[in-house]
TrEMBL record:
Name the record gives this protein: 2TM domain-containing protein
InterPro entries in UniProt: 2TM_dom
Keyword Transmembrane helix belongs to the record: yes
Pfam families to which the protein is assigned, alphabetical: 2TM (PF13239)
Record domain 2TM: where: 13-85
Keywords: Membrane, Transmembrane, Transmembrane helix
Transmembrane residue ranges: 20-44, 50-71
């Protein structure tokens, strides 16, 4: 299978697919390890102490990972570049 890596649409699609795969792995690891942390905390102390803060911090980081995926998907950088070039040409 021959792939034309010079095609910008294909390169963008590949980058988005790789980023989504990374986001899904991050989410899966978050869920599995968070359940493990909460279970350890509940078994040991019968209450949520340290695991809550660990999971909350990781959830915050995961939210930014998802936000970065969504912003990249809106082609924000490309749109702003074109907007800047148009304003420089007209102004």
């Amino acid at each position: 299978m021959s792939e034309n890596m010079d095609d910008p649409d294909q390169a963008l699609a590949r980058r988005r697919a790789q980023y989504l795969a990374g986001l899904l792995w991050h989410t899966g690891a978050f869920v599995i390890i968070s359940v493990f942390f909460v279970a350890i905390d509940l078994i040991g102390n019968r209450s949520l102490n340290w695991s809550f803060w660990t999971v909350a911090a990781w959830a915050f980081a995961l939210a930014f990972h998802a936000l970065a995926y969504l912003i990249d998907g809106s082609n924000l950088e490309e749109r702003k570049t074109r907007q800047y070039l148009r304003s420089r040409k007209n102004g």
